[in-house]
Amino acid sequence: MANEPVITIVGNLTADPEMRFTSGGVAVASFTVASTPRKRNAQTDQWEDGEPMFVRCSAWRDYAENVAESLSKGMRVLVTGRLTVNRYQTQNGEQREGLELQVDEIGPSLRYAKAQVTKTSGGGNYNRGNQGGYGQNPGGQGAPGGQGGQGSYGGQASYNAPQGGSAYDPWSQQPQAPQGGSAFDDMPPF
Fold first, then answer.
1. Residue 62, in any domain of the structure
2. 30 in a domain, yes or no?
3. Which of 100, 96, 74 is nearest to 85 (CA)?
4. In the chain, N or C: fewer CB atoms in 10 Å?
């Protein structure tokens, strides 16, 4: 549907994502996010929990598998998606409906945690040619890059030199001076 409201919620998973497959073999991961608003009580000068809200969410296909393998009960997550009405029939034959968030994006909250992200192969058209550093497998910290397409963002962050990357690093070499002098001035133009 075109006019489904897009919302973002932050909360904790109430259980591990439940992975199932439709009769057509499509993977679906379903989970619930508990989001509890907090506000400061002006009289007591203390933070108080508001009424918790439980939002049922679902992710589909490869996304479902990534969610089921990566997230677990209690994790704080950020979820963005389209709010839809889910109509279903209970085992007793009753018709029911409820709101459900069709997940567009989900990730762990890094407010109180650290995460290491591993890129999956075959997802999207990101760096399909593996011509840059992020499409290469760093092979662990300090190890040379390897199999393109296996991609990973693993390793420790470093502001001096990124992990992974291709064997060819154009910035590690001095520029070749053309015949008759330098192509660059010693001083920047500003």
1. yes
2. yes
3. 100
4. C
For residue 131, what are the contacts with CB-CB under 8 A and spacing of at least 6?
Answer: 166
Q: Which pLDDT does position 120 carry in this prediction?
A: 82
Tokens at 141, concatenated: 């910290």
3-state secondary structure of 86: strand
Residue ranges of the chain with per-residue pLDDT less than 50: 125-161, 166, 178, 181-183, 190
pTM above 0.70, yes or no: no
pLDDT digits (tens, 9 = 90+) for 25-56: 999 999 999 999 999 999 999 999 999 999 99
- Tell me the two tokens of residue 177: 């001076």
Domain of residue 89, CATH code: 2.40.50.140
The type of residue at 187 is M
Q: Which helix (H) or strand (E) covers residue 108, if one does?
A: strand 95-108
Spatial separation of the C-alpha atoms in residues 34 and 74, rounded to whole Å: 9
Q: Is residue 67 part of a domain?
A: yes
Number of domains in the chain: 1
Alpha helical stretches, state H, 16-142: 62-70
